Structure formats: structure tokens, C-alpha cells
Amino acid sequence: MNPTGTLYLLPTLLGDDAENEWLCQKEIALFDDIKVWFTENERSARRFLRKAGFKGDFDEMVMERLDKDTPSAEIETMLKHLLDGKDAAVLSEAGCPGIADPGSSLVRGAQKKRIPVVAIPGPSAIVLTLMASGFNGQQFTFHGYLPVDSVQRSKRIRELENNAKTTGYTQIFIETPYRNNGLLADILKCCQPETPICIGVNITLPNGYTKTMSVRNWQKDVPELHKLPAVFAIG
Q1: Are 142 and 126 in contact (CB under 8 A)?
Q2: pLDDT per position as a tens digit, 98-153
Q3: Which of 84, 108, 200, 211 shows its CA 20 to 30 Å from the CA of 127?
Q4: Residue 1, pLDDT score
Q5: Which helix (H) or strand (E) covers residue 141, if one does?
Q6: Does domain 125-234 have CATH number 3.40.50.11740?
Q7: Which CATH number fits the domain 7-119, given the four candidates 3.30.70.3040, 3.40.1010.10, 3.40.630.30, 2.40.10.10?
Q8: Are 90 and 66 within 8 A, CB to CB?
Q9: What 3-state class would DSSP assign to 173?
Q10: Sign of CA dihedral 45, 50, 55, 57
Q11: Every domain of the chain and the residues it spans
Q12: Percent of the chain scored above 90 by pLDDT?
């Protein structure tokens, strides 16, 4: 049996203003060797690769769309590249593939077929916010997106606050950037005054920050988060 290729999972920068220094040298060294790429958006993938220093010819690459709606039949077609012995890479739209980002379906298929999978280190807003929060980093739960409906979202926030208090597990979640202000308003309305809340905003960007304060103190200085990438955590 011919050896299969390796599936690499490559993080991207967390914003256009982020510096290449946030990428590890291992990832940059792989750019010239990989000819098969799976991405959410070919245009932004090309833009990222050029910014990160890729000097090759895009016409020599195969780029296929991989997102949350990619059907299983297309996943099987993608895996054929690897079964034919070609190395391939999943390139995240922002952050790390498979973590609040597409990629897990392809990785799952690769694991089933015994195709080697290698995750390359890189920036993850979720992990970096947790690191800088001061919250429990031994036990934590990432919940992804909370309900859009304000009533259901408020109910879920109260549940997460209770989970944090009774279990000690850090509760982490995110929201679509244009709904951040609504989510924050519900957090400050629903949680107890002394509950600690961490917000990581524009992580790795020049104007980014990670702050942890009580609900009471956040209410005194409510940040403007509209359309800003943010991660929220309850400690």
C-alpha cells in the first residue's frame, strides 16, 4: 500500500492587523510544500498566505471549499488527495481549524482512514482569553454560541453562572460580533454583581485587550463591542 499524505491543520492570524510573528516557523515552512488546501474562502486564504510570506504560484495549488455545510460526499473526495499520497492542509478563516471553526469533519474522516493528522500551533482567541483571564485553566467548558433569542439567552447565561459557581469550571462562549452588545447587556443584567466576567477583544491585534472584572465594575464601564471579535468567560 502506498503511504498516505499528511493532513496539516494550520491556524491563521486573528485579524488583518495582526503581525506574522503570531505564526510559528513550522507553519510558514510548510507553505511551499503543500499543494492541496481546504479553506472556507479561497480569496481570504490567498490573502493570508501572501501576507504570511508565501511566494509560490497559486495556479499550482488545488484549493477546495470546506465549511460547515460541506456534504459528506465532498469530504470523501477531499480525502482522496491524501490517500493518493499528497500532503494537504486545512486553513482556518481565523484562528485554529476545528475549534469554533470548520475542519473537524475532514479530520474525523482522516482519522477513520488512518491518515496522519498534524495540528500546528497558532493563535486561538478562546485559549488566549482563558490564559489571560485568571480563571480556572484546569477545568473549563467552551459552549460556542449562545441562543440568539434574548429570553433563551438570558436563561442560558444564568445556567452558566450557576455552573461556574457550583463546579468551579470556567464557562467560555462567543457571539457573532454584531450581536456582542446585546449579549453583554444580558450578561450584566442576569449575573450577580460580584460574578467575575472576562472579555477578550481583538486578541493579538494592536488594540486588543483581555479584562476580568466583576459584573458590578463592568456596569460602571461598559465597553463598545459592536462588530469586534470577542470571547466571553464566566469564572
Answers
A1: yes
A2: 998 889 999 999 999 999 999 999 999 999 999 999 999 999 999 999 999 999 99
A3: 108
A4: 55
A5: strand 140-145
A6: no
A7: 3.40.1010.10
A8: yes
A9: strand
A10: positive
A11: 7-119, 125-234
A12: 94
Q: Which three cell numbers stand for residue 122?
A: 497558532
State the burial class of residue 218 (Cβ atoms within 10 Å of its Cβ: 0-12, 13-18, 19+). Answer: buried
In DSSP terms, which residues pair with 140 in a beta bridge?
170
The sign of the dihedral angle between the CA atoms of 148, 152, 153, 156 is negative
Residues 218, 188: contact at Cβ < 8 Å?
yes
Assigned C-alpha cell, 171: 464557562
| 7 DSSP β-pair partners | 88, 117
Closest CA to 80 of 2, 157, 144: 2
Give the tens place of pLDDT for each residue, 193-205.
Answer: 999 999 999 999 9
Q: How far apart are CA 61 and CA 174, in angstroms?
A: 33
Dig out the grid coordinates for 22 from the structure: 503570531
Query: What distance in Å separates the CA atoms of residue 150 and residue 64, rounded to the nearest whole number?
Result: 37
The SS3 of residue 95 is strand
Contact partners, residue 223, CB within 8 Å, separation at least 6: 184, 199, 201
The strand pair at 230-234 and 170-174 is best described as antiparallel
